[in-house]
Amino acid sequence: MRLLKLTFGIISISLFIACGGNGSQEESTTKEKTMTSKEIMQQKAKERAESPEASKSEEDAANKNEQDVVEITIEGNDQMRFNLDEMKVKAGSTVKLTLKHVGKMTKQQMGHNWVLLTKGTDIMEFGQKAAGAADNDYIPEAEASKVIANTKTLGGGEETTITFEAPEKGTYDFICSFPGHVALMKGKFIVQ
Ligand SMILES: [Cu+2]
Known about the structure:
Elements: H1 2-19, H2 22-50, H3 52-68, E1 69-76, E2 86-89, E3 94-101, H4 107-110, E4 115-117, H5 123-130, E5 147-150, E6 159-165, E7 170-175, E8 186-191
Parallel strand pairs: 1-3, 2-8
Antiparallel strand pairs: 3-6, 4-5, 4-7, 7-8
Bound molecules: copper (II) ion (CU).
Copper (II) ion binds next to loops.
């Protein structure tokens, strides 16, 4: 028995030397860490499986936040056009709207803005009045009550983002109120 222990001891020492001590120790430490993080993941999975309701309500909350914010990008170009003539959002959502002027012309030559008007606003009439409001991004102060949301006026290569609450259900007009643009640059903003 004693002889066996002694022999085992010698073999162990020889192995230790052969493996070069530190190297094998590091290896076993790494292995231990891997095992540990794997165990943690297994533990978490187990906890999730045990309380499906808790994790479900977390998911619902995340989904709701995503649904509440609608991101829309609309482009205006040098041909005096928007790339969208309709937008649809759900009532109660927050709209994050980005206007991009994808053209090269200047703000004075081919400025674009995006203006959402209240229901029943005559867009041609609004456009005519807007022409005189160059110093206020083509939003005439006397008509401010007809504007639900608007961006500033952009020149080629610029972009801007505005955030606003969707108005009540219905169909609204959006336009570019730069002089002469409303006839071509307009569309429907539908709240469902
Ligand atoms: Cu325009």
